[in-house]
Amino acid sequence: MSEVDSFFKSAFSVDNVIFGFDGGDLKVLLIQRGAPPFKGMWALPGDLVYPNENLETAAERVLEQLTGLKGVYLEQVRAFGAVNRHPLGRVITIAFYSLVKTKDFVPTPASFAQRASWHNIHHLDKLAFDHNEILHDCLIQLKYRVRMAPIGFELLPPKFTLTELQQLYESILETELDKRNFRKKILSMNLLEELDETQEGVAHRPAKLYQFDQERYRQFVEQGYSFDL
Amino acid sequence: MSEVDSFFKSAFSVDNVIFGFDGGDLKVLLIQRGAPPFKGMWALPGDLVYPNENLETAAERVLEQLTGLKGVYLEQVRAFGAVNRHPLGRVITIAFYSLVKTKDFVPTPASFAQRASWHNIHHLDKLAFDHNEILHDCLIQLKYRVRMAPIGFELLPPKFTLTELQQLYESILETELDKRNFRKKILSMNLLEELDETQEGVAHRPAKLYQFDQERYRQFVEQGYSFDL
DNA sequence: TCAAAAGTGTTCTTATTACACCCATGG
DNA sequence: CCATGGGTGTAATAAGAACACTTTTGA
Fold first, then answer.
1. Between the CA atoms of A212, A218, A219 and A221, what dihedral angle is there, to the nearest 10 degrees?
2. Residue A228 forms part of a structural domain
């Protein structure tokens, strides 16, 4: 094999850390590998990038094939390219994370075939490849981004209570927040619209529902506003 | 060509945004391309990644071949992989930025051959490939990181004045800082050691020289401290 | 009437901003 | 003795942290 050829004996893939939130802890969607290497182990969903496919497109494809979801929040984190990260050859992978509303997720045939399921982000075994490291870095990136941009809402249903929102931030940031201070701050941003609806079916005083006003946020950004929690 | 083969008709490269600071504006080290594509245009230094080479190693190699420098601060930003970003084929590039002390830079034969020179980061023409976009993203990353970690010192000589440090932050962050407030804050971190030396050869009251105490920073981090400017 | 979570303000503390003059040196 | 940047403190303002009780609903 010539030296030039050897440059092309490599491949690139995308791996997608799909985050979800069910009201309790932050979750990640993993698949159980059905073939070697690492057969039977849990892994991040991923695939090789097609020759005429952009990286983001590949990550969206992986996501849609597994969950049926399109148009989901997706962000690249970085490339992982250690020489021996893949036992079968040189594979550089580009890591993305995405934020989905768990209730929208309906397992697809592809995901059944691979046995996909949500895992608590803080109770994970050893994953295939270098996926623990990838997951770790994506989580760090999420913790940073969630404070700098209103992306947390991507993990919640369109209508949510302030307590749900607070619990979301608490589980991502791994910290406890003061209820009154949190509400004061988030409401003072004027990005939440209070609805004329309340929770139903709860055995206590029902909470007001809110929705995030995407259009107003866009206008604020144009005027130089920057989200900061 | 079979479909499997086509996955391997791709290559990956690294591109390195090398930042420097000469007391005035923030600079970036560019090379003038000597061969097509984009012959004659200025570009980021970069190269294909060798089959048995880690991404960071490749970025360090590019840097050393150009500048003769080793062991400099280097950080990955992200991958750029638009299908048509390289006119000759599918090349995914991993962008890094590095921080060097401009006085240490001695052009190497390799850099002469390529005509390397420092360019003001805010007065750039159109660069080769998607390098303007890469540079832009690396600069954004630097702006963020320089406030979260004591990496600014990598751009200064070991001994520096507080005014030099302030000017460095002002040029990276593109903002003006109040002299007294800046000094109060940076000195209150207890990360700077005041030396028994002063500036020489200046036509005014000479400033005290300081150096960054890397070891003390390491200890503080162990105790949970996190740098925040 | 009880349990469970919703909702609501004020005080204290800390961090950030704004601001102007004298000092030391070389030419 | 003049020009140049070095060096210094205080007051005002804003942001963040701490904290406890009443309300509404379903069971």
1. 110
2. no
Backbone angles phi, psi at A7, to 5 degrees: -65, -25
Q: Please state whether strand C lies within 7 Å of residue B70 at its CB atom.
A: no
Among B51, B53, B79, beta carbon nearest to A94:
B79
**Interchain pair A10, B55: CB under 8 A:** no
Which of B81, B114, B148 is the last residue before a domain boundary? Answer: B148
Q: What is the tens place of the pLDDT at every residue in B59-116? A: 999 999 999 999 999 999 999 999 999 998 999 999 999 999 999 988 888 887 789 9
**Residue finishing a domain among A86, A119, A148:** A148
Q: Quote the pTM value.
A: 0.94
d(CA B45, CA B103): 19
Cα A63 vs. chain centroid, distance in angstroms?
10
At which residue do the structure tokens 């993993």 appear? Answer: A30
Regarding whether B130 and B38 lie in a shared domain, the answer is yes
Tell me the residue range of the domain where A166 lies: 153-223
In this structure, is the CB of residue B218 within 7 Å of any atom belonging to strand D? no
Q: Are residues A24 and A83 in the same domain?
A: yes
Q: Report if CB B208 to strand C is under 7 Å.
A: no
Instruction: Render pLDDT for A12-66 as a digit per residue (tens, 0 to 9).
Output: 999 999 999 998 889 999 999 988 899 999 999 999 999 999 999 999 999 999 9
